Amino acid sequence: MALKSKPANIDDVYNFWENNPLFVGESSSDIGSFDYFKEHRKVYIADCYAGNFDDRMLPNIENREKVLDLGCGPGFWTIELQKRCSIEAMFSADLTQQAIDLTKKRLEYYNLKAETFKENAEDLSFSDCSFSHVNCQGVIHHTPDTQQAISEIARVLQPNGRACLSVYYQNIILRNWGVFGLLGRLVSLKGRGRENLADTSDASDIVRCYDGSDNPIGKAYTKQQFIDMLSPHFEIEEIYYHFFPARALPVRIPKFLHRFLDQRLPFMIYANVRKKQC
Ligand SMILES: C[S@@+](CC[C@H](N)C(=O)[O-])C[C@H]1O[C@@H](n2cnc3c(N)ncnc32)[C@H](O)[C@@H]1O
Fold first, then answer.
1. What is the domain extent for residue 35?
2. Is residue 119 domain-resident?
3. Cα(126)–Cα(11) distance, rounded to whole angstroms?
4. Does residue 81's CB lie within 6 angstroms of at least one atom of ligand 1?
5. How many domains does the chain have?
6. Separation of 74 CA from ligand 1 center, angstroms?
7. 31-84, pLDDT tens digit by residue?
8. Does residue 151 form part of some domain?
9. Ligand 1: which residue has its CA nearest to atom 1?
10. Within a 13 Å sphere around the CA of 272, how many CA atoms are in the beta-carbon half?
11. 4 lies in a domain?
12. Is residue 1's pLDDT more than 60?
């Protein structure tokens, strides 16, 4: 009889991301070098937004006082938010030390500042009502208790505080993997063990494997599931979509096609939300 494997826990999540920070295994430059960060920024904007950064992700003018980049990874958002709008105080947190160290390095290269913290999004050490805005991109779908992480984001936000969150989206491909998976076998995706993606079984397993075949947790949500998770704590101001991972394809696709797929076949769903009044 096959043994049932234990569900992944936060230590498994830590071990994976500590050893496989975002973009490692996808760059020819040394991890933490200036070229590494430059290439990461280029690829991130090209892939996540088909080359057109989306200003809807920036904090509103009235929410720029104390901003937390939660699950900062190698620091793309910590830098980008400060370069694109005048944030009074920037804070960056991640589960892993690697992410904190990379974010600090990235800040140095751009001569910017942020306070950095090693934190579990499910159990933040910050006091209630600490921040005016929380940015949390592609993080809570990797943690065991996503709903608990959402409660914590709400707790640390000030009254009227806002957040911009994103998770993997169950688009038509992920909802119908039985059919598309067969096609997937014809296309071998590049980087971070994505060659094994065709052997995956369902939406969550596919997005788990997209970030690395050893990645313990990935989850993909429908629009309604995302709304249901956010609604207990937040008024939802806007929902939108992006991300077609062209960089993993075996051939380059033209920009116009990438823009079309970014809108018609997006793999991430985004929400701009405001904390509900108590
Ligand atoms: C896919 S990366 C996204 C990084 C960054 N937000 C971005 O968009 O570039 C996921 C990050 O979430 C972090 N993470 C996963 N679970 C976490 C948790 N429970 N608390 C804090 N960070 C977490 C990982 O360490 C990793 O750096």
1. 10-176+222-275
2. yes
3. 21
4. no
5. 1
6. 9
7. 999 999 999 999 999 999 999 999 999 999 999 999 999 999 999 999 999 999
8. yes
9. 138
10. 12
11. no
12. no
